[in-house]
From TrEMBL:
This is Methyltransferase. Coiled coil: none annotated. GO terms for biological process: methylation. The keyword RNA-binding does not apply. Keywords: Methyltransferase, Transferase. One of its GO terms (molecular function) is methyltransferase activity. Its EC number is 2.1.1.-. It comes from Streptomyces doudnae. Belongs to the N(4)/N(6)-methyltransferase family.
Length: 243
């Protein structure tokens, strides 16, 4: 029976205290994207940045979150620190999958490698409902930078995962986080861990990675800084396990 743990706090404080080896780190950090100047970085909260409807979604108050106002260099340094702690916990041959957008793709590939992982590629998350932009290419993809702790040895029953995933951010009542990932995409990604493995997500948000892991028979350790989202994720896991 897969199990789950959800820590509340800053990943940089919680990760050094963890000791269980994990089979994969699958995470969706705050991207810190788009803030070229001090003004741009400090004038909008995450909620104002990602939502046009003022933070409410069908009556559900989507919580804000912090950690979205680093400049480019400090984002690389900070993410390297986080991933270095994650690397210490990743078993040899285990994987790291880190979401990012086009602006932070170079920073994220640098941070993954600075942390110690062997960089193995970039997969694509295609978002079919992205906004068209007049005269420009549509920004309809985000990316999953991935690597491993050293050599990856396929098991007796290797999985064959795609490098391209399509899925829209949940809408309506299903949307409980500003930057929520599609459950179906996360369910495919957690299959990189052989059953019954252990997945770590230091930026759990509303618990999509954890929900996907539990649904796919993997165990989960999460960390979330926001009290609002920690409760959302915890309630999702409790409901899932009780069902
Ligand atoms: C991009 S969201 C993750 C969303 C998640 N994938 C989902 O589907 O719900 C990033 C999350 O990281 C949390 N966060 C930001 N800084 C953090 C930190 N230093 N330690 C732990 N969590 C943090 C935010 O509160 C936010 O919920």
């Amino acid at each position: 029976m897969p199990s789950w743990q959800l820590h509340r706090g800053d990943a940089l404080t919680v990760l050094p205290a963890l000791t269980d080896p994990v089979d994969a780190v699958i995470c969706d950090p705050p991207y810190n994207s788009g803030g070229r100047t001090m003004h741009e970085r400090t004038s909008r909260t995450a909620r104002e940045k990602y939502l046009t409807e003022g933070g409410r979604n069908h009556g559900f108050d989507l919580g804000d979150f912090t950690g979205e106002n680093r400049d480019q260099r400090s984002y690389t340094a900070w993410l390297s620190l986080i991933l270095a702690h994650a690397y210490r916990l990743t078993r040899p041959g285990g994987a790291a999958l880190v979401f990012t957008d086009w602006r932070q793709l170079p920073a994220t590939t640098d941070a993954l490698q600075a942390a110690g992982y062997t960089w193995r590629g970039v997969a694509v998350w295609h978002k079919p409902i992205a906004r068209p932009q007049p005269g420009r290419l549509r920004q309809e993809c985000e990316f999953i930078v991935w690597g491993s702790n050293g050599a990856m040895v396929p098991g007796n029953q290797p999985v064959y995962l795609p490098g391209h995933f399509t899925g829209s951010q949940p809408r309506g009542n299903a949307r409980v986080h500003i930057t929520q990932k599609p459950l179906d995409v996360m369910q495919q990604l957690v299959r990189i861990v052989p059953e019954p493995g252990l997945v770590l997500d230091p930026f759990a948000g509303s618990g999509t990675t954890g929900t996907a892991a539990l649904l796919e028979g993997r165990s989960f350790i999460g960390i979330e800084q926001s009290a609002t989202y920690w409760r959302v994720a915890r309630d999702r896991f409790i409901e899932l396990v009780a069902a």
